[in-house]
Amino acid sequence: MPPPSLPSPQKSTSYHRMSNESQKDDTDRSSTTYYKEEEQDPFLSQRPFHPHRKPSRHIYIYPIVALLSLLLGALSSQFLRIEHTIDNYPAPYGHSSRLTSIVWNANASFADEPSERTDAAWSSLIPKGRGFVIHPKLAPADGGERKGKSVSVFHELHCLHGIRSAVFTTAYLMKKEKANNNAISSSPHDHPTMPAFVENAYIEASLKGDGAHHLEPHHLAHCFDYIRQALMCAADSNLEDVVTMDDENGVTLTGAEGWGSKRVCRDFWGLHEWSEKWRSEEGGGIS
Asked: Which intervals of the chain are annotated as region Disordered (predicted)?
């Protein structure tokens, strides 16, 4: 059905003249007025096509503008990604592509008392250079006050390992002292159920070497507060499953172990690789 005849608009540059398709007859001008009103109506403008409308050169511009917008959007996202990952560095609050989804499970290699096996596992977490890096943009060094940077997670692991060593070493020394006192004050038949003390050669060797520095109060005090602030800074918001279990005395407890729960983590090994690439020294180890 053709559009109704409407009064001619006031003298002005019509839509068709703006499109370089000017027509001077009254019929075309009335049609132009109709389509202007159609474009202003939100319901009419949703129609997929206009059968009586003459073609305009503007229709060729729209796809070009849309294509340019897509290209600019893609380039912007790449620039933002580069900003957050300079030389592949997963900076704080970096790009989501650096996140991984994993499930935590208990690992005795990190939970057992100090030994050659467990300390090797802990040391494997630290890159060559121990997390000390020099980078032209992120961690410059000029031979003066600027001496590069230290990547926080490796400092945190160093502190946690120090606390771990102090706890196990202190417990070991207490058992050793108790065993020595019992051996002096009583016979083995006085405490038949007491487990025999077993010497840990690895801990003994570390006490004779440089392992004793983990027991120094100022180092432990620093690490306790440092780890506290690191945990608060990261503010891990993963949700853990709540479970019910019985303790060794048969008491039912409800809590969260953390094992078996899905969680989203940042790319630790990517940061490990980056830190090793830009290391400022060749040393290794976690102590």
From this structure: 1-50
Encoded amino acid at 284, one letter: G
> How far apart, in whole angstroms, are the C-alpha atoms of residue 20 and residue 109?
79
3-state secondary structure of 244: strand
Query: Is 128 in a helix, a strand, or coil?
Result: coil
H helices within 115-267, ranges in order? 116-123, 152-185, 201-208, 217-234
Helix 217-234 to helix 152-185 angle (10° resolution) is 140
Q: What is the pLDDT of residues 80-98, one digit of tens each?
A: 443 345 777 777 755 667 7
How many angstroms separate the most distant Cα atoms in the chain? 124
How many secondary structure helices (H) and strands (E) does the chain include?
9, 6
Instruction: Render pLDDT for 181-217 as a digit per residue (tens, 0 to 9).
Output: 876 665 555 555 556 788 889 999 988 877 677 778 8
Q: Quick check: 206 and 169 in contact, CB under 8 A?
A: yes
